[in-house]
Amino acid sequence: MNLRLTLTIVVSKIIIKACRIARRGGTTLPGRIARFLCPDILNQIAKNFKTIMVTGTNGKTTTTRIIGKILDENGIGYITNKSGANLVGGIITTFIDAVDIHGKCKVSTALIEIDEAAFKVMSNYLSPDILVVTNFFRDQLDRYGELYTTLKGVKEGIVRSDKTHLILNADDSLCASLGRSTDRKTIYFGFALDAYKGVEESINSDAMFCLYCKQKYEYSNHVYGHLGGFRCTSCGYSRPETDVTCTAVEELTSSSSVITYSAGQESYRAKINLPGLYNIYNALAAIACGTLLGFPPDNTVKALGSFECGFGRMEAIDTQGKTIKLILVKNPTGFNQVLNYLLTEDKTMQLAFIINDRYADGTDISWLWDVDFEKLQGIQDKLENIYTSGLRGEDMAVRLKYAGIYSDRISIVKEYKKLVEQGLSRTPIGHSFYILPTYTAMLDIRKLLKDMFSLKDFWK
Amino acid sequence: MYELNICHLYPDLLNLYGDRGNIIAIKKRCEWRGISANVFNLTLGDTFEPETYDIVFLGGGQDYEQEIIQDDVLNQKGPEIKNAIKNDKVFLCICGGYQLLGNYYKTWDGKEIEFLGALNLWTIGGKKRMIGNIVFECDFLKSPDSDGLVVGFENHSGRTYLGPEVTPLGKVVKGYGNNGEDKHEGAIYKNVYCSYSHGSLLPKNPALTDHLITLALKQKYKDFVSLQKLDDSLEERARTSMISKTVTSG
């Protein structure tokens, strides 16, 4: 028996318990202490698991959850870091929580969401069997420096992970580059040329120029952001052939989509129980994972149709015949997609933005100026009241004013309880109150909603 | 009716950290006063004809993107940019765009990259990034209605030093500024205004925005006297709350 390992596990488990009793989440601290007591802890515990990791700037949590649902459908037990604690400390906590004091666990699959900047560090301790990379969009630049630095970090992590299978987004020139010049087995997912006609071509595209030779890419099709059929006419770098392909978007509503996709020789039709184009990409990544694991396609289709979101990526709370919808916002591309989703709402609504600038949100909030709030002008008649809140609620109000939203509809309400009560009371029966918080604001507002409407604990 | 033409240089490449917020702020504050404002986007290969424009904006980019524009800005647009500056054209340059107007950028391992040389200033790369909220004091913005304080966010590893002809934009109250040493932030030379405060510098600092608009209108229209006042209560709330938060933080 390894005494140090056992001792570390026991101490960490006690801290996990204590944190939960104190109702303080307890998702990161125990793992940090464990690593202090036994630096090699992760290696020792995780070596018995088959590990699937999901990283990228957008859609990590949803993709992880869809893969989890696919595992469920196939009767595979697994451990996962459900609460979005996706830095190294949080991941160690997840493993310690799952094993007994000897480091053993009943299940042998670990499904781990990992922060794109933490992956490089993580790769020193643990090499995943499968690595899913969703995409690279600008995100919290003040923390990570630059998008290209983040990309380089993930690449270095892949170099260290010698047994890893890669699942990559073919439509993202940055993400797809990870499959270049590596001998890791790689599966690509993406949209077929005529699957979807993207309407907007944002000037603030994150990757307009070839990563290798700096020529401007030509696109055969645009889906959104910089995603699409890119090709460099100078050096020839282009969107790789896909193994899992969305061949048609048949339906796209405010709650779900219907797509046809091909995987291998076969074609399938699936309802994805999530709104938004970005979630089709998340679903494709998960389908690719199911394909790689050799699961029957029927189980995957079933999982996609019955999936429910969690932890605030999009959560609905029904109360008094009205619905509170919580949607996490964290970077321009994700935020724009959420706004596109709001444009599909056909009733009048109350709308709240809660913007914080703590470390986990990104301390620099200038990215709000890269979000196209101007498009809300098109639904001004449906936006009865707009509330801004959070540590940077004032900045958000200014952003909306300069986006051409009528100032008299904007109010700054700093106190969350008052915000929820006011928004809800002004929402007519059968209508929705949308709350769009950044990450740490999500934690706070969710805690409040939990007390007001008895939501279940997020770490369970 | 007054009209201003705003030139946004390399908006597809130098657009880091919400730089377009500055363009939006200038445009909106003109329009709210009945001054029409047209924005022209100029990128690689486009010819820069300075007489067409009244305000020129140059933002910051990632290293990768700044390398892409290097040749175009130095050899294609460079001579006209220098001419325009000499002829008192109004410029706003942020972060990477600010550095680009200087003489050179010396990387921390000693490699010297030649820049435009339009302003006598230079930048030395550092290993440490200077990141955080910044408050600085601009004497030229002080008036009975304005305390002259400007608040923004800086994120740079380059340390910039000014030659004798160039004056700082402001005095650092909190934060790093040009180099973290001499308490200077940004630069002014003729009608060129430079700052490390990126992204949403202008929206939250309407006094500075109006200063630039006023300069441009005075250049263009001999009869122009002053701008009419706007209701800036939201902007003021955002500005003052961030100033007090920043000044009182650790």
Q: What do you see in this structure?
A:
- The complex is a heterodimer of chains A (460) and B (250).
- Chain A has helices at residues 3-21, 29-37, 41-46, 60-73, 88-98, 119-122, 141-144, 147-160, 173-176, 277-292, 297-306, 332-343, 393-402, 416-425, 439-453, and strands spanning 50-55, 79-80, 109-113, 130-133, 165-169, 186-191, 218-224, 227-231, 244-252, 257-263, 266-272, 315-319, 322-326, 349-354, 383-389, 410-412, 432-437.
- Chain A has 460 residues and is α/β, with parallel strands linked by helices.
- Chain A has 2 domains: 49-89 and 105-306, Mur-like, catalytic domain (UDP-N-acetylmuramoyl-L-alanine:D-glutamate ligase), CATH 3.40.1190; 315-453, Alpha-Beta Complex (Protein-Tyrosine Phosphatase, Chain A), CATH 3.90.190.20.
- In chain A, a hairpin with a 2-residue loop joins β12 and β13.
- Chain B is an alpha/beta fold and 250 residues long.
- Chain B has one domain (3-248): Rossmann fold (3-Layer(aba) Sandwich), CATH 3.40.50.880.
- Chain B is built from 5 helices and 12 strands.
- In chain B, the strands form 2 sheets. Chain B has a 6-stranded mixed beta sheet with strand order 2-1-3-4-12-11.
- In chain B, α1 crosses α4.
- Chain A binds chain B through residues 141-142, 145-148, 203-205, 208-209, 214, 216, 363-370, 394-395, 397-399, 401-404, 407, 410, 412, and chain B through 11-13, 15-21, 24-25, 28, 41, 44, 62-65, 67-68, 129, 131-133, 153, 155, 198-200, 203-204, 231, 234-235, 237-238, 241-242.
